[in-house]
Amino acid sequence: MAGHGSEWTLSKGALPIFLSIMWPFTCLIVVSFPNHINRWMGVSMVLAAGLASWRTATELSPDGTLNEMYVRYILIGGSHALAMAYKNPLTAEVPNALEPRYVKASWHPLYRGWKTVFNVRGIGTTWENPYLWPGIKYTWQAQTPSTKAKDPDAKLLTTRHNLTGRGRWSGIAVRCEYLLLNFFLLAAYYEFMDPQMLFSVPPSLSDYTRDKEGVIRRLLQTYLTSSGPATPVTTREFQLRALEAFDKVVGDLLLISLYHDTCAVVWMSLGLDESWEWPPVYGRIREAYTMRRFWTMYWHRTFYKSSNSHAALISTHVLGIKTRTVFTRVLNAFLVFGISGIMHSMVETRLGHPCAWGRNMWYWTLQPVAFVLEGVVQFFWGKVRKRIERPGDAWVLNAFERLVGYSWVCAWLIWEAPKHSFPLITCS
Known about the structure:
By secondary structure, this protein is an all-alpha fold. The chain is built from 15 helices and no strands. The longest helix has 35 residues, at 235-269.
């Protein structure tokens, strides 16, 4: 991605580099002194510093991919810092409700703030995302693994590749190996998974037209009507859809994991973090046998906690809806993905794709629809299973559920992929 960095010079990048330092430092100050900076002052400081950095972010470096990742993190980190600012507990208590459980009053306020300000997944806090370390519900359990023989976590914590109990340099060494592996896999991916090389006839803009974004209606017209659809469904189209879905899952995994491991190595080398504080940015793909689990158990959850805070603020305090109801959970899911869609559209627009504010937004707002469909199917299937299940049948039914689940996830990803990528490809 050459992007905006193709004509970069040091003098041109001086201001963006300075602002890229001032923005996180401002967020650090806001989070580090909750009893001295009130909520609205903190929100104002985060917004002002974030806006200044945002305006020059695409000129940070000559590397367009690095600039893109930084643009994304301004919004992800800014969203997290805003949530921390308006949820400010306004207390000198250590740890407060937002800080990791293990922080100590003897630590310098800036170091305690460090453990919170970039901690977008809530690692070590009471509000963290569960199962960031595979098989371990909360990260602090990694420090004191169970010794019970039947505890599955105990086995995970003693495996050769476990990083939770390693010392600083051992953890750094293993992550450097992963980093190099990721780098070569990503290079090979870009080299050999290029659509221009995979297809005998390279894809053109005619393959990404709007009438090819949907497929179900056209399939129904193919088999249920005599005239058929105006744009027939072809094998090539399904191949392109599958490739776009694969790129969304694998391409992002390799790229984001590469940056994640790099940050882990840097901060651990400086002695600011420990190995157990850097769980994998992605979960295990085998856990993604529903779309809800795809987003909650496999996909990176760097934006979820802050967007969920914003969604709860809107549904509870703005709309006045009661918490802990089925309707509220569904509404919050739509709000979370709506906010995520806004964030991604802002990024794409900043990178030169103004079409991101159009049909591309549907990709994000459609995700909770899958959750609702899954909930309905699971409800009725649960009733059917109770009637047909006999002693000894559990493993067969479990295997059937997994097979159907994986097939459903693949089908959904292939169906939805064009709604994300086609509008951006044909933007110009």
